[in-house]
Amino acid sequence: MERMALVGTTKGLFLLRGKAGGDWVLEGPALAGEEVYAAGVHRTSRGVRLLAGTASEHWGPVVRLSDDLGATWGEGAAGARVAFPEDSGAALARVWQLCSPGPVDPDVVYAGVEPAALFRSTDGGESFELVRGLWDHPHRPQWDPGGGGLCLHTVLVDPRDGGRLTVAISTGGVYRSDDGGETWRPSNRGIRAVFLPEPDIEFGQCVHKVGRDAGSPDTLFLQHHWGVYRSDDAGDSWTSVGEGLPSDFGFPVVTHPRRADTAYVIPLQSDEYRCTPDGRCRVYRTDDGGRSWTALTAGLPQRDAHLTVLRDGFAADDGDPVGLWFGTRTGDVFASFDDGDTWATVTGHLPPVLTVRALAV
Amino acid sequence: MRVRVHLSSALREHAGGTSIVEVELADAGTPTVAAVLDDLASRFPALGHRLRDEQRRLRPHVNVFVGDDNIRDVGGLDAPVRPGVEISVLPAVSGGDGGDGRTPGPIGSEAVPPSAPQGDTA
Description:
Chain A is mainly beta. Chain A has one helix spanning 132-135, and strands spanning 2-9, 12-19, 24-30, 35-44, 47-56, 60-66, 74-75, 94-99, 109-114, 117-121, 129-130, 151-157, 165-170, 173-177, 185-186, 207-212, 220-224, 227-231, 239-240, 249-255, 263-268, 283-286, 294-296, 314-316, 324-327, 333-336, 344-347, 353-360. In chain A, the strands form seven sheets. Chain A has a four-stranded antiparallel β-sheet, with no helix packed on it. A four-stranded antiparallel β-sheet of chain A has the order 4-5-6-7, with no helix packed on it.
């Protein structure tokens, strides 16, 4: 099975092509010099469209599209890009997330952006429109930026109902809509904001990433600034499942696309030292919904490895067997094709990796 | 009145492949740089949004010169454009890396830049 990975870095987009167990061909950088915070895969009956959320320090942010698996990149229709309406008073800083809901809403692509907002495309990413229901939410003025900016970085669409949306904002927390984005409510009960005097708050948590379980669409896993959580009621309530991890801090959480109760995190030492603990690069997997965690180390550096993996730097592909991929701020990319039991270095010495998305082709 | 706008090489692909664009301005009153950018944006939308954001503010690391004058020194987007002058649009040297905390603000608004410096929470 041929696979490819899109590796978005601070200096452009790199592509990896190859087969599990074989040699990987590195191509790029495409879009050289531009930071690539978001990459997306939009599969339709017409084929595969790749998307990249890029930003040039000089020329600003834009969503790029490729309909030839990364050979060439273009933009959507003129004047129909991800752009805030003039009356919003806002200007796009970055695109942090590009999410294709799949068969439940086959022409839709969502863009999560900074400043925190959600945009929807109904034409496969050609044009986008601001989701007003979230933008006009009365909580929005109270959301504060995290270290990376005030970003909406996670978009999950219920595979049973395209109108049921979950987003996560740093720092605003998790918000849900059951009506296609018309109305939203915070969904953070149980997530403790220990950086505040009163940690049990309705919203304002620094949620880093959320993933949906393969077995039950109402089961979610969440990496918070402090702690890992699970919800079995689509986010209505959350329970800590971080016991057994070496740290409560980390950025990504990835769920296995086919195995229920299976999720992965990459703990970092602490809020103050955001590198892999003890100089050891370890991915942690739970096979029982968070009740226990197993350190996965085979093939990963276990000495003097002070690595950082950002919230979108870890992803599962749609191949069989599943490929797990992650990139580091020091330019390494690792992959596993046996559910994380063993890993291999795919490439290294890239610019800092911001996002990884991979697919079977 | 017609003025010539010289574009950075990085912008040519967004302006029909040319590095010099002629802009026709109304003769009434004194046209401004904003009017020049409006004309460019209407003809070349992908060029327009690379120069100004949605609030029509000049991007922080884009420099526009009227003759030899950086418009940041002569009135910003309201800088007058007089007959015979040539305009240049160039990338600022400050924009190559980012995150240095010295980003100039966008021109055209008192608002602060929309993006915080890049941190670890990407």
